[in-house]
Amino acid sequence: MIALKGIQKAFGAVQALAGVELDIHSGACLGLVGHNGAGKSTLMNILAGTLTPTSGELAISGEGAGNDYAGNGYTVDLANRLGIRCVFQELSLCPNLTVAENTRIIHPSLKGFGWRSRAGRLIIGQLDLIFPGHGIDAGDVIGDLSISKRQMVEIARAFTETQTPIRLIILDEPTSSLDAQVAEQLLAHIRVVTAQGVAIILISHLLGEILQVSDTIAVMKDGTVVDLRDAADFTRASLVEAMGSTTVAEAAPRRDADTSKASGSERVHLRPAVQPDDQNITARSGEVIGFAGLAGQGQTETLLSIFSGQGVLPGESDENAACCFVAGDRQVDGVLPLWSIRKNIGISSLKRLRDKMLVQGDRETQLADAWKERIGIRTPSVDMPILSLSGGNQQKVLFARALGSAANIVLMDDPMRGVDIGTKNEVYGIIRQEAEQGRTFLWYTTELEELDYCDRVYVFRQGVISQTLSGAEITEENLLNASFKQAS
User: Fold this and answer.
1) CA dist., res. 359 & res. 254, Å (int)
2) Which of 55, 228, 454, 463 has the greatest count of CB atoms below 10 A from its CB?
3) Which residue from 18, 395, 83 is spatially nearest to 224, judged by alpha carbons?
4) Cβ–Cβ under 8 Å, residues 201 and 170
């Protein structure tokens, strides 16, 4: 259906794509994997019409003929008219508009008296089909929704049809903000639409998802496709190897529950305001504490309350040892878009970087360069703009900002969104090292396997703790059961 030939794209001195060759077929799901900065999102932006390639050919078959759309003639509007939609990793919804109004943006045929009602019925119908029980109203303002619900709206909007049948949907990290149950709903819908002849390109760092629904898998590295095979020919290990990683994450050694409870000085002691029983959140020095449960059940709000100082014990929140926060919604709560990488990293360490009243540029550069190397931020210079980085590399900057600070308590709000498996393994190792040196981590995650790194897990349900799990109790079965359990 679509042929990409010799696609190259350069951003100044940075060669993002170096001659990509790729074919996309109707009725099939193509899994696209690679490390952050491999060129996946750049390639998809070209296919969606939001970027123009420096060179190469883009041929789309239609009406039995091949049409060459190389050059500047291929736009978002043309892609939409050809039935090509993209769910972007950095969500493209307008935050000041409602769910229905955002739907109208890609459907110009929805006009005249009553268009909002028609647009609302269209998007809610698709949400009901893909995400039963979504809890979203057509009149909801996008900016008021949680990131998981915004992602659900963006996905559902891509599947809506009016005049043009959908031929291809590009899903760039579509489940990065969804919990396991909602992600499974989407994967099931992918299988349905591909059986109906729609082509899907799925980009995900969750390799289990890629292996589960893909027909073929393409591996990208340094701006090119380095491997392309049937999904059945790959295993998780061979995918990691093809991406350029030599090791797979080790099983996380979990400390004995009783030992972890007794170790270290207590730093956080908090009871949710409406908690019906005597369960409290406690965190000690050297502990990694997990928050789990379905998305939107109060985990982020609890982290924010701790960040504001609630439950933080005296002596743990002064200027030298404040909490730091790694946001999952990096565009809203994380990056400072007009600043360089260096300044984005140094903002949480200004006290240590200044001499009297002035921040010392050399100290700031040393801090940024050290964390660039330690966490593997792919950039030629820390003085580059933060938005010159891929989404996953922007997230690395947020980790560097937090871990490079003097904070004793690190709060992480589903922080691995859009981060490749190699970087995840490195960050897991850094978290272990920092915890062994006495740092405390409180970690909300929608990826169940990440809870293996936690000493204790608090499962949230409707804003309260439904169950506390520790040690060998932290299993997928127990976590899922507790996610639907009411606190007693």
Assistant:
1) 41
2) 454
3) 18
4) yes
Q: How far is CA 432 from CA 18, 55, 94, 299, 323, in A?
A: 37, 45, 39, 22, 18
CA 177 – CA 149 distance, rounded (Å)? 9
Specify which residues 292 forms β-bridges with. Answer: 459
Query: pLDDT tens, 82-126?
Result: 889 999 877 789 999 999 999 999 898 898 899 999 999 999 999
Residue 87 in contact with residue 171, Cβ under 8 Å? yes
Say if pTM beats, i.e. exceeds, 0.70.
yes
Cβ atoms within 10 A of the Cβ of 100, count? 22
The CA distances from residue 265 to 135, 226, 283, 322, 438, in Å, are 41, 50, 9, 16, 9
Degrees (nearest 5) of the Cα angle 117, 121, 124?
A: 130
The HSE-up count of residue 389 (CA atoms within 13 Å, CB side) is: 35
Chain-centroid distance, C-alpha 134:
19
Residue showing tokens 């690190």: 410
* Spatial distance between the Cα atoms of 102 and 377, rounded to a whole number of angstroms: 34
Location of structure tokens 């809890």:
135
- Rounded Cα gap, residues 20 and 6, in angstroms: 5
